[in-house]
Design a protein that fits this description.
This protein has 10 helices and no strands. The chain has 348 residues and is an all-alpha fold. It has one domain: Formate dehydrogenase/DMSO reductase domain (Formate dehydrogenase/DMSO reductase fold), CATH 1.20.1630.10.
Length: 348
């Protein structure tokens, strides 16, 4: 069967594709940083509440969770829209195949969001209920992430779309794809690592050396594990894509090498307890790995499609309006975070 015949025709875009790809990368990095802070902080806070160790840090992280989740959700809209602009014929098809699961993500996020408020409100008066609410919220967030990983991997596999013939009910999941499990594990493991660094940064600002020590333990140990999971992810890729990252494609190989070296540098700085340097090196690593992820998508779809082939209408008005809204929105968020830090004594 010619699976390329299953791919819908592409729509024209208003501006050259490179601008949308750049904004996709920028907004995805912002989203994934707050995703790591939210999911990872929930893991660390829940662990602290069950073990009884660093309970004050668990309380601090739990109090910040509704804010980080709100920012995660809002910053996640833009990259999802840019994927639809550039790869809509792939994403819409995969979304239809798993429509029932995909729509359930909305309910999961709402439940998870409200549970964070319940957990924070009941932290002192009803610690058991607080732990239960936090655990349920974490479960909902992990479930949503699993659905996102399903959709983002399924859109890259037109050969799997024929499953619609046997399952036209919107209940298909991409669980047979080996890249799904490696990709999901890579994202989940990164969350408490980044959140551990966040805890260390809070501890450094509040002069809580015990928080710094505890946070860096989460970061360094999980970052070491990340190299193993990253190797698993590389080996799980389709062979032509994997070989592209192993020397056959200069850009792909360069991005992977740069991201790996940045990750090693961040790990070394974390082991040396250099919190500031570790933060900047981790942000660099996240950015390089996001670019590597984009290369995986591009190389996987290359036999069927390239965004460079999209017709361009030349109407740059929508792009200019979005760029202006993005600058204004990010400025407003930064201002609100600064005001919140000054008025409440708690950074977001």
């Amino acid at each position: 069967m010619d699976f390329a015949r299953l791919i819908p025709a592409a729509e024209a875009i208003p501006s050259p594709w490179g601008w949308f790809e750049a904004l996709l990368l920028l907004t995805f990095v912002l989203h994934v940083v707050f995703m790591n802070l939210t999911v990872g902080s929930a893991v660390i806070a829940l662990a602290g509440r069950f073990t009884g160790r660093h309970k004050d840090l668990a309380r601090e992280l739990g109090h910040r969770l509704p804010t980080t989740l709100a920012l995660q959700i809002n910053l996640g809209v833009a990259p999802l829209l840019f994927v639809q602009v550039l790869y809509g014929q792939f994403l819409y098809t995969s979304s239809v195949l798993m429509a029932g699961w995909w729509l359930s993500a909305i309910a999961a996020v709402i439940v998870g969001y409200y549970c964070l408020y319940i957990s924070d409100a009941k932290a002192e008066s009803a610690p058991g209920a607080s732990r239960l609410a936090l655990g349920l919220s974490l479960l909902m967030l992990l479930y949503t992430g699993f659905l996102l990983s399903n959709n983002m991997t399924l859109m890259l596999r037109p050969a799997a779309w024929g499953a619609y013939v046997h399952n036209p009910y919107g209940s298909f999941l991409n669980v047979a794809d080996p890249t799904l499990w490696a990709r999901y594990s890579h994202m989940v493991l990164a969350a408490p690592a980044v959140a551990g660094l966040y805890a260390a940064l809070i501890g450094a600002k509040k002069r809580r050396l015990d928080w710094v020590e505890h946070g860096l333990k989460w970061f360094t140990r999980l970052t070491m594990a990340q190299f193993l999971v990253g190797a698993w992810l590389l080996l799980s890729l389709p062979r032509p894509v994997m070989l592209a990252f192993m020397g056959r494609d200069q850009l792909a190989t360069g991005l992977l090498a740069a991201g790996t070296l940045a990750g090693l540098a961040a790990l070394l700085a974390g082991l040396r307890k250099q919190v500031g340097a570790t933060v900047w090196l981790t942000l660099l690593t996240v950015t390089l790995m996001a670019a590597t992820r984009a290369q995986v998508r591009s190389l996987t779809l290359a036999p069927h499609f390239s965004p460079a082939s999209l017709p361009v209408t030349g109407d740059n008005t929508p792009f200019a309006v979005f760029a202006a809204a993005l600058v204004f929105g990010l400025s407003a968020i930064i201002y609100m975070l600064k005001v919140n830090a000054k008025t409440s004594g708690r950074g977001a």
